[in-house]
TrEMBL record:
PANTHER family, per database record: BIFUNCTIONAL 3-DEHYDROQUINATE DEHYDRATASE_SHIKIMATE DEHYDROGENASE, CHLOROPLASTIC-LIKE ISOFORM X1, SHIKIMATE DEHYDROGENASE
InterPro entries: Aldolase_TIM (IPR013785), Aminoacid_DH-like_N_sf (IPR046346), DHquinase_I (IPR001381), NAD(P)-bd_dom_sf (IPR036291), Shikimate_DH-bd_N (IPR013708), Shikimate_DH_fam (IPR022893)
One of the protein's GO biological processes: shikimate metabolic process
Short name of any one Pfam family annotated for the protein: DHquinase_I
Ranges of residues in domain Shikimate dehydrogenase substrate binding N-terminal: 243-323
The protein's name in its UniProt record: Bifunctional 3-dehydroquinate dehydratase/shikimate dehydrogenase, chloroplastic
């Protein structure tokens, strides 16, 4: 899966800009270009006291990149609450001034696009957009919707959703990869993040990235798109790995793993998967394009039952943090790398001192905690595991116990005192 000789994909990266003044918008346009955006989406409805004949030329005259002009009404999720005729006149003006792209809602697109193509023989491209609420339509329903949008005379189709489950995004990918004209399709929110990250793999016209200082929930930053995920290196052959977790936005996995994939010259990408239902997830993303997963909280124990086979160490621990799809038959094989990785790191830090006989205090009894407890116990350590939810007084007792254990070795050998302290913590700890 090397990258040698592979052409770059055609997906462009777009920065949505929502400045409240023309001056701020011009400043953000320059910033977005510096951060690597290919084109810019200008939300006119966010500009306070917007005056079309004064402000629109000022924006277009100062553009450093091609612009998508969007003037979204409140009835379609925007901020504009004024007269509809005035709004449409503004978009006509944008066409007259030669805007690169103009975004129209499906509801008003049909007659406007035909009119503008007749009246203005320019290079302006027209985007027809539809915001879907509720459950994502089936592949067939999305195809029918796309056909309706195309019939308006659109040059580019845009479908925006707010999925309730990550498995719905598979239908977005199907639309992107199968429809025979430029399509923008994605979901907003954290569950929809992979629709932006994997857009180049499935052939989307553009994907979005936010500029520094203006983060948007569920949207990657321009920096991460360009540097962490390297959109320009993705193509239809890119293999997708990722962390299965809930929540998942905290993960540093993409920052760690994506440079490794590139260093090995492997055509792959590592992304965060916000998963609500393990069964549905593995059933939906079951092909060879998804050859492996990391597993995070809260699924390291629950995911065991969804593996076709489990490595003996992971089976003994009762937790899986790595899943590989076996190429020959597609079966999911579960492993646990937490155990050896953590214990050998601790051994290295101890610089030759044996773990045997030492006390391990673990705060947390989830999958990772189980792995550490198993590894330490197998090397002869004594284990004290506290539940992950600790009240303040319990945490103070724990710290006191660690301090006493470190400074007074006689406590370790005094079984009666140790038993008394263990009984004191009985409600909040499990002792092995």
């Amino acid at each position: 899966m090397g990258r040698t000789g592979i052409l770059k994909n055609s997906t462009m990266i777009c920065a949505p800009l929502m400045g409240e003044t023309v001056e701020q918008t011009v400043k953000e346009m320059k910033q977005a270009k510096a951060e690597g955006s290919h084109l810019l989406e200008i939300r006119l409805d966010h500009i306070t006291n917007f005056h079309p004949h004064h402000h629109l030329p000022a924006i277009l005259d100062n553009k450093p990149l091609p612009l998508i002009i969007l003037y979204r009404p409140k009835w379609d999720g925007g901020l504009y609450e004024g007269d509809e005729h005035s709004r449409l006149q503004t978009l006509r003006l944008a066409a007259e001034l030669g805007a690169d792209y103009i975004d129209f809602e499906l509801k008003v697109a049909s007659h406007l696009i035909r009119e503008l193509k007749i009246n203005y023989q320019s290079a302006t491209k027209f985007i027809v957009s539809c915001h879907i609420t509720g459950t994502t339509p089936s592949d067939e329903e999305l195809a029918n919707l796309a056909a309706t949008m195309r019939a308006t005379g659109a040059d580019i189709l845009k479908v925006v959703e707010n999925v309730t489950d990550i498995t719905e995004i598979a239908r977005i990918f199907h639309l992107l990869s199968h429809y025979q004209m430029p399509v923008i399709a994605y979901s907003v929110g954290e569950r929809g993040l992979i629709s932006q990250l994997l857009c180049p793999k499935f052939g989307g016209f553009l994907a979005y990235g936010s500029i520094k200082g203006y983060s948007i929930p569920g949207m990657p930053s321009l920096y991460s798109v360009k540097h962490t995920y390297k959109h320009d290196l993705m193509n239809s052959e890119t293999k997708v790995f990722g962390l299965v977790s809930k929540p998942v936005s905290h993960s540093k996995g993409p920052i760690l793993h994506n440079p490794t994939l590139r260093h090995e010259n492997f055509n792959g990408v590592y992304v965060p998967f916000f998963v609500d239902n393990l069964k549905e997830f593995f059933s939906t993303y079951s092909g060879s394009d998804f050859p492996g997963f990391s597993v995070g909280i809260p699924y390291k124990e629950a995911v065991v039952e969804f593996c076709d086979e489990v490595h003996p160490l992971a089976e003994s621990i009762g937790a899986v943090n790595t899943i590989i799809r076996r190429p020959c038959d597609g079966k999911l094989i579960g492993f646990n790398t937490d155990c050896e990785a953590a214990i050998t790191s601790i051994e290295d830090a101890l610089k030759g001192t044996l773990i045997s006989g030492k006390l391990f205090v673990l705060v947390g009894a989830g999958g990772a905690g189980r792995a550490l407890a198993f590894g330490a116990k197998s090397r002869g350590a004594r284990i004290l595991i506290f539940d992950i939810i600790l009240k303040e007084q319990n945490l103070l007792l724990l710290l006191s116990w660690v301090k006493l254990e470190h400074s007074n070795k006689s406590l370790i050998s005094d079984r009666r005192k140790e038993q008394s302290l263990r009984m004191e913590h009985a409600r909040n700890a499990s002792i092995y």
